[in-house]
Amino acid sequence: MPQGQTQQPAAESQRFDPAALAQMEQFVHDFGRMYRERNELLKEVTRAHHETLLRLAMAAEFKDDDTGSHIIRIGYLAEALALRLGCAPDFASLLRKAAPMHDIGKVGIPDTILKKKGPLTPEERAVMNQHTEIGARLLGQSRIPVFKMAAEIAACHHERFDGKGYVQGLAGEDIPLAARITSIVDIFDALTMDRVYRPAFPLDKALSMIQAEHGKALDPRIVDVFMEHIDELNDIRLALTRQSPSFSDLIDTP
Ligand SMILES: [Fe+2]
Ligand SMILES: [Fe+2]
């Protein structure tokens, strides 16, 4: 090998001061540790942020006279339905964590309206409908994916496929998929549980009420897949009702 090439590395290495090199290595090591610690803290903050909002959603649900288990079932049912629709597992998993916050805006609705036994007046109905926008505002301040999806669901879960819903009167696939999926499992779970003002509807009655909204309030393709897999979905609902589901599985950690 030519002489010039064998001597080059030795000449290069002599340019570095060993103390400076050691200091640089230490710096790189410290920087790596700080980076890992920062990521851990970020995860902790995101997790705490999500848990706080989830508990707020649960507080909103208690106001509406429920045990809080409805919102947890919504998460798992929305994930299960999304998977059966062929959605990506990442999307379905995010939906499990985002859908439970759909009614978080009810914290901003007066109890006199929220807990009213009789039918609402048009004015009271208008106030009640604001829970969608309040929820979207509460959730929509974040760039974190789970909150972005949750804000979209809060804003759009009362839109109807035929365009006759609220807030914006969106129709068809203009309604975000996450909201279209959440709407059907929300209706299914609400119909099949006891409320203060009525007992749970029997399963067949609840299903015929959902089928009646095929292409009207609800996305027809999603209703078809829901009906196709109703036995599995109902088993999930029953299992979640029997055993207390894990709250921590609903919290997102980036
Ligand atoms: Fe709602
Ligand atoms: Fe609900």
Itemize the secondary structure elements and their pairings:
Blueprint: H1 3-13, H2 18-63, H3 69-84, H4 89-98, H5 111-114, H6 122-129, H7 131-139, H8 145-156, H9 177-191, H10 203-211, H11 220-228, H12 230-242
Helix pairs in contact: 3-4, 3-9, 3-12, 4-8, 7-8, 8-9
The structure holds fe (ii) ion (FE2) (2 copies).
One fe (ii) ion (FE2) binds next to loops.
Mind explaining what this structure looks like?
This protein has 254 residues and is mainly α. The protein is 64% helix and 0% strand. The chain has helices at 3-13, 18-63, 69-84, 89-98, 111-114, 122-129, 131-139, 145-156, 177-191, 203-211, 220-228, 230-242. Helix 3 runs antiparallel to helix 12 (230-242), helix 7 runs antiparallel to helix 8 (145-156) and helix 8 packs across helix 9. It is elongated and about 85 Å long. The chain binds fe (ii) ion (FE2) (2 copies). One fe (ii) ion (FE2) binds at residues 70, 102-103, 186, 190.
The overall pLDDT, averaged over residues, is 89
Low-confidence stretches: none
Cα Rg? 26 Å
Assign an overall shape.
elongated
Helix and strand succession? HHHHHHHHHHHH
How helix-rich are the residues, as a percent range? 55-70%
Assess the beta-strand content as a share of residues: under 5%
Short key terms for the protein model shown above:
about 250 residues, mainly alpha, 12 helices, elongated, binds fe (ii) ion
At a glance:
The protein has 254 residues and is an all-alpha fold. The protein has helices at 3-13, 18-63, 69-84, 89-98, 111-114, 122-129, 131-139, 145-156, 177-191, 203-211, 220-228, 230-242.
